[in-house]
Design brief:
Elements lengths: L4 H17 L57 E3 L1 E2 L11 E7 L10 E3 L1 E6 L2 E6 L4 E7 L3 E8 L5 E14 L3 E7 L5 E8 L5 E6 L2 E4 L2 E13 L5 E9 L3 H11 L5 H16 L2 E4 L3 H13 L5 E2 L5 E4 L4 E4 L6 E2 L3 H4 L3 H8 L1 H17 L9 E2 L2 E2 L8 H10 L7 H13 L13 H9 L24 H21 L3 H10 L7 E2 L4 E2 L31 H4 L7 H7 L3 H13 L6 H7 L6 E2 L2 E2 L18 H15 L17 H9 L1 E2 L7 E4 L6 E5 L5 E7 L7 E7 L2 E2 L4 E3 L7 E8 L19
Parallel strand pairs: 30-34
Antiparallel strand pairs: 1-4, 2-3, 3-9, 5-6, 6-7, 7-8, 8-15, 9-10, 9-14, 10-11, 11-15, 12-13, 12-14, 16-29, 17-20, 18-19, 21-22, 23-24, 25-26, 27-28, 28-33, 29-30, 31-32, 31-34
Helix pairs in contact: 4-18, 6-7, 7-8, 8-9, 8-11, 9-11, 11-12
Length: 758
Amino acid sequence: MKKTLIEKIFFSGTIMMLLISCNAKIVITDTSEGIDPVDYVKPYMGNISHLLVPTFPTMHLPNSMMRVYPERKDFTADLLNGLPLIITSHRGSSAFNLSPFQGEKSDIKPVINYSYDNEKLTPYSYKVYLDDQQTKVNFGLSHQSAMYEIDFDKNENTYLIVNSRNGVMNWDGSSLSGYQLIENNTKIYLYMNLEEIPELIFVLKNGNLNEGTNAEGRDASIVLKFPSNTTKLHIRYGISFIDEAQAESNYKREVQDQNVKSLHVSGRKIWNEALKKIEVHGDDHSEKAVFYTSLYRTYERPVCLSEDGRYYSAFDNSVHEDNGRAFYTDDWIWDSYRAHHPLRVLVDPKKEEDIINSFVIMAEQMDNFWMPTFPEVTGDSRRMNSNHGVASVIDAYRKGLRRFDLEKAYEACKNGITQKTLAPWSGMASGELEVFYKEKGYFPALYDGEKETVPEVHHFESRQPVAVTLGTSYDEWCLSQIAKELGKNKEHNHFLKNSFNYQNLFNHETKFFHPKDNKGNFIVPFDYKFSGGMGARKFYSENNGWTYRWDVQHNIKDLIKLMGGNTSFVNELNSMFSEPLGRSKYAFYAQLPDQTGNVGQFTMANEPSLHIPYLYNYAGQPWKTQKRIHTLLNQWFRDDLMGVPGDEDGGGMTAFVVFSQLGFYPVTPGMPMYNIGSPVFEKAIVHLENGNDFTIKTKNFAPENKYIQSAKLNGKNWDKPWFLHSEIINGAVLELVMGDKANKSWGSDPNNAPPSED
């Protein structure tokens, strides 16, 4: 029977609703052949935030100093704030600003706000049309230099405004140079050269435009006026943290003889070389877009500051020779130690060695020989809690990386944990809280309304006593393992004993980690969802007690015992994913804005949660890990503007996506092993730096076939939901037979649970 058009529409719509209601995955088939990895990258993915900080569409080469993105209030903003020249830190604002302008001299401002259209951005290129100005912008970049080509369509006076928000700008007759002062007496320098020669030079200061060649102070701006027949500008520039001469050298080395097109060609090649370290195969274009966009994000930080064999360090405000090894900074280790560093160990180990070596150098350059916690281009900001650089050190060493001084790294880590205060967001030396911690084995909490009297606690922060105790327990476990590698048996035993300090805050009645006062009493009454004020920071950190319930990465086996065994542990894990918010979304996120991307009380949007879905492997139910990983990836990571659930810290979260889409994850940095999850690709190949390949292959692949039926590793039957780094690093094949229903026996033998300290 033939259907009318309306009947056809209704029928197809009904089928679509059925698919959606059944949570079926709609696959956009990838029919492209020979498409390069960089073509899958969507820098706009996640640019509209669910609540907090979005991702930024950043143009840069892998781990390079030159980072740029369109500067606007947020993705939906109507106006661009000029054209950026350099972003000084991940998600920071631009140090210098460029504003091409056609119009009346009286309308000139330090930064022109542009209406814009037809923006097109890739990791290595940028095009935009400034529609009110009728100006076309084309941009390309290198590691420490970049170039703009600007085409003017109007027949009006043509100007170029170069602004330093707080610094000095000079025109010497053929080029422009200067610096901007940022935090901690750090300066970023600029050298700019134009093919077209201006006919007049002005200085814009405090709204006044006067002829001159030197501008100084806040919003110091040089304004270049070009002849009336000027229709195009070619602007090449270099940046430096050393001095103006070095900025000029960077410009000459990288862009002096280049044009935007050639920069696009070289940038594209460099990105493909980086992204091709991991190949993924399958028909789902969207999954590849999520994967390669996530992998691109992991190259945004840290950044290489070496310039022609030298680098500026804000850790001692001096310029140093790099002695042939790149110096890296801008690494928020609280976020990145979990998956970002382990991913680099796997695909870029030489770079990871240089990064850890840089950490040790930073410690040597600072007044105290303390491992940094949040090293930025302006120094160590000491944000968040704990000292997790120690985890990256032992993880790298245990996985065979050797090009750093383990003894020095150990001393820096030990000093940072035992000599510096454990109080978050503080760089002060240890005080009475640390004396208490060493004696009692936990960080004491304050009652509601009880005033802080300890100077080590930052004036805008709280003690975060549970987060600090759990984080330091893990840090001391990492210290114990380095001590063991160095043959320091007494120190190994001391720190290993301290690594059990999390037990001191475990409430056996509630099975949660619960803050205690300085007399050893649990703080009552207590709500594991909402006690602790904004961000639950009076007791936890950014996340509530439901997240920190699982923050014992080094000893899951003991955590299972504390919770009453495997069955109880799994039941409590299940309850996390089904426990309601307890308030309206409006009220919940008003207090816990970092805890977005919720599935029950689980938050996909914050790094302390990343390992939690893999914990079923430890309790004999790996099929639930397989189900949960697929569900979370489908729910929260998509190739669209809202496709990242929370605060993606320059690779901290998206490294989780890379690992999880491949089918494995490093639950415990410092233990050289990986938990098996469930891959989303038919085949993936990790090209290891030593020339070998680690291949993950599936049989019976289909989006709905998320469950492992059986497995082989290097041709041998494999019934463990984990494998060692040593079993893949010299080349390996993990073959997984998949199905749409769980094989609840695979990997469930208690003797095959992943290793854990016990």
